[in-house]
């Protein structure tokens, strides 16, 4: 006689669905059994079923779509979008993103003054607290299907003895041309990590529960490795992978 399962019913439901998603019984992108069907199968109420689904949403294995139901998300599936990373210079001297995506700012970025926090000051090799020009933008593409949060930082010390002592420099990517016009030969280094989003980031990027974001830091450097500017990109991490040409 098999041992009796002593786990709470919601955990049994979560384990059953998790195993089905991982072994392909419930394919990625397909709807899971309805709450009513699961409640009948396990002899529980619908709130108990929802508790089990909440556990799976927190681990990123299911996605609830309003009015349509709950759908499987496989950790083994290929992402729906691959974005090449990098910056290239066109024949007319303009700098463009390697992915070729044309981003639109939800609102025109406005320069604000911020003080460099310790972590960013270390990357920029400036004293913590040094003032910086900062631009924030929510950017969209493909009729709003693609979204990213983009922040540009330019330390004041980089702009000494230039025309930008009197006026704010442009945000990236126009910033690259402005820096090149000042005589700098530019190259770039990116740092990529993942983490769970803050509530306002999840809302802006329309992230489902349990979906992480990719946090990309891009440092613009001179040929002599002096940092000139830093950008932060926050990207939805659920159906996205980044590719780098080495």
From TrEMBL:
**GO BP terms in the entry:** negative regulation of DNA-templated transcription
- Alphabetic keyword roster: DNA-binding, Transcription, Transcription regulation
Q: What is the top-level taxon of the source organism?
A: Bacteria
Tell me the segments the record calls region Disordered: 72-92
Q: Does the keyword Transcription regulation apply?
A: yes
Pinpoint the HTH gntR-type domain residues.
7-75
* Protein's UniProt keywords contain Transcription: yes
The family database entries (PROSITE patterns) matched by this protein are listed as: HTH_GNTR (PS50949)
Report the InterPro entries cross-referenced here.
Bact_HTH_transcr_reg (IPR050679), Chorismate_lyase_/UTRA_dom_sf (IPR028978), Tscrpt_reg_HTH_GntR (IPR000524), UTRA (IPR011663), WH-like_DNA-bd_sf (IPR036388), WH_DNA-bd_sf (IPR036390)
A Pfam family annotated for this chain is UTRA
Task: Please give the start and end residues of each transmembrane region.
Answer: none
Alphabetized GO MF terms:
DNA binding; DNA-binding transcription factor activity
Q: What is this protein called?
A: GntR family transcriptional regulator
| Source organism (scientific name) | Streptomyces poonensis
Taxonomic lineage is: Bacteria, Bacillati, Actinomycetota, Actinomycetes, Kitasatosporales
């Amino acid at each position: 006689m098999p041992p009796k399962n002593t786990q709470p019913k919601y955990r049994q439901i979560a384990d059953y669905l998790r195993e089905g998603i991982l072994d392909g019984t419930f394919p990625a992108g397909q709807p899971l059994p309805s709450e009513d069907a699961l409640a009948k199968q396990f002899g529980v109420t619908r709130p108990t079923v929802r508790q089990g689904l909440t556990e799976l949403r927190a681990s990123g294995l299911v996605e609830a779509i309003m009015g349509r139901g709950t759908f499987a998300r496989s950790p083994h599936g290929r992402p729906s979008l691959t974005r090449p990373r990098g910056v290239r210079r066109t024949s007319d001297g303009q700098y463009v993103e390697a992915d070729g995506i044309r981003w639109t700012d939800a609102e025109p970025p406005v320069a604000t003054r911020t003080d460099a926090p310790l972590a960013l000051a270390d990357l920029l090799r400036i004293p913590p607290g040094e003032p910086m020009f900062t631009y924030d933008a929510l950017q969209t593409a493909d009729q709003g299907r693609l979204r990213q949060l983009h922040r540009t930082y330019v330390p004041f010390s980089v702009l000494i003895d230039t025309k930008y002592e009197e006026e704010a420099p442009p945000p990236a990517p126009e910033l690259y041309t402005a820096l090149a016009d000042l005589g700098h030969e530019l190259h770039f280094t990116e740092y990529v990590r993942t983490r769970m989003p803050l509530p306002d980031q999840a809302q802006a990027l329309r992230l489902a529960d349990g979906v992480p974001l990719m946090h990309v830091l891009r440092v613009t450097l001179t040929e002599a490795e002096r940092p000139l500017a830093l950008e932060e990109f926050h990207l939805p991490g659920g159906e996205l992978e980044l590719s780098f040409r080495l």
